[in-house]
């Protein structure tokens, strides 16, 4: 079974407690990997490393405009590099909106077909001749 250590301060390391916990595949209920069980010391080390990276690392020394540009580039890269299945089935608002619009279009199309079919059926059952314009109606100007 695969084991995953903690990643703190740019490097993989074992938990100080040396304990592991299993993780399961949700739909199978079967274990697939073991993850290092962090202790308070591990959490403190991770927080210190994150604080140090934020304030003394290259991003911490950059001005806010540069940091914003870097974040925007990272977001664009992340969107572009995600696998298509994850991007298309994200389950976010865009997916809900897509299915809502699709359902509205489908229901509108279905309603149009039903109205046309019922109109056609009623005309076939009770045909009425179209009114014919008389000669006086055709030559009378509209006022």
Structure commentary:
The chain is of the alpha+beta class and 143 residues long. It folds into two domains: 1-81, no CATH class; 84-125. Helix content is 57%, strand content 15%. The strands form two sheets. Strands 1-5-4 form a three-stranded mixed sheet, with no helix packed on it. Strand 4 (20-25) and strand 5 (30-36) form a beta hairpin. Mean pLDDT is 71; it is low at 83-89.
Helices, strands, pairings?
Elements: E1 2-4, E2 6-8, E3 11-13, E4 20-25, E5 30-36, H1 40-56, H2 58-61, H3 64-81, H4 84-88, H5 93-125, H6 135-139
Parallel strand pairs: 1-5
Antiparallel strand pairs: 2-3, 4-5
Distance between the termini: 90 Å
**Biggest pleated sheet:** 3 strands, mixed
The percent of residues in helical segments reads 55-70%
Number of domains: 2
**Count of individual beta strands:** 5
